[in-house]
Design a protein that fits this description.
Blueprint lengths: L4 H26 L5 H38 L3 H17 L7 H23 L3 H25 L9 H22 L6 H20 L1 H11 L8 H19 L4 H12 L6 H14 L9 H7 E3 L5 E3 L4
Antiparallel strand pairs: 1-2
Helix pairs in contact: 1-2, 1-10, 2-3, 2-11, 3-4, 4-5, 4-11, 5-6, 6-9, 7-8, 7-9, 9-10, 10-11
């Protein structure tokens, strides 16, 4: 059920709609002079965005709940308990403000789950997602520290916050760049040309108006663009190439990439955190994500009846 294509498509679609409408269009639209017609369109976009946000939250909670059940059935009790608690806490946060120890527990459990998936990603040699998982850990620590200081009544702000944020962003950029190397064989020439166009568009936008580009980037993704600009250009190329290469073959990897983009870095909301967890789980499934055609046959294992099934399928 959790790997059903319709479920994954609905989750990815609602997450991308929530990302575009609530974190980009709604914020940019505030500063644009509007005609009466544009005001109506803006209000409609806000209504659709709120629906997409609620749908994303419910689907993400359900998805993590399904992962928890799947882990219980596989006797992975520690992972199942962590996923169950994260799901329940996220459901609770839809109705109550996350204060006190509850958000600390959610951050700690999320770090535990990400660490489990990161080990799988490293064993599968998926460097890009492994680096993104390390970035997510830095983001969770960055978000947890202020709450920890508040709970223990310590004088703030936490001195490590800036370092954690900077390290997390650097790891995320490195992970996106690593995608370019991982899918270099699976990507077609058209994929590479389109990815280059996306990277060039970002480079032109940054050169033309770095302030506006920076504001839009931090609104959309959470990244501050403190690193040299060429690294972000390479990151855009790597991420675009990975999306195009996996989408051309209908991989679950496409959904994993879409979810990590929609979740952003150091997400403030629990549904966005759950998108990252779902993304890392999907990426940790051994489905020959970026294999070239000749390699796919080697990664497929024969099963009864002479059929071929990808190894690690659930």
């Amino acid at each position: 059920m959790i790997r059903d294509r319709a479920v994954l498509a609905l989750l990815a679609g609602s997450a991308i709609a929530d990302w575009i409408l609530n974190r980009v269009v709604s914020r940019v639209g505030i500063f644009i002079p509007k005609t009466p017609l544009m005001i109506q369109v803006y209000d409609l976009a806000g209504t659709v965005g709120r629906f997409a946000g609620l749908l994303t939250a419910l689907l993400a909670i359900g998805f993590l709940g399904g992962l928890a059940v799947n882990s219980w059935l596989k006797r992975q009790f520690a992972l199942a308990a962590a996923l169950s608690l994260v799901s329940l806490l996220s459901l609770w946060f839809l109705f109550a403000a996350p204060v006190g120890w509850a958000p600390m527990l959610a951050h700690g459990l999320s770090i535990l789950v990400v660490a489990v998936f990161a080990v799988r990603l490293i064993s599968l040699r998926r460097l890009g997602f492994a680096l993104l998982a390390a970035s997510a850990v830095m983001g969770e620590l960055y978000l947890a520290l202020p709450g920890m200081y508040q709970v223990f009544r310590l004088a703030g702000p936490p001195p490590a916050s800036i370092a954690l944020f900077a390290a997390g962003e650097a790891l995320a950029v490195a992970g996106a760049i690593a995608f370019a190397w991982e899918c270099r064989k699976a990507a077609s020439r058209r994929n590479k040309a389109a990815a280059m166009a996306a990277a060039a568009a970002f480079a032109v936008a940054f050169a033309a108006n770095p302030s506006l580009t920076g504001i839009l980037t931090i609104w959309a993704t959470g990244y501050s663009l403190y690193l040299p600009a060429f690294l972000y250009v390479l990151a855009v190329y790597g991420l675009a190439l990975a999306l195009l290469a996996s989408a051309a073959k209908g991989r679950e990897q496409t959904v994993a990439l879409a979810l990590i983009v929609a979740g952003g870095f150091a997400p403030q909301l629990s549904p966005q955190r759950m998108l990252a967890l779902a993304s890392f789980w999907l990426a940790s499934q051994n489905d020959a994500a970026y294999a070239a055609p000749a390699e796919e046959a080697q990664l497929a294992a024969p099963v009864a009846g002479g059929e071929v099934e990808p190894r690690g399928a659930v």
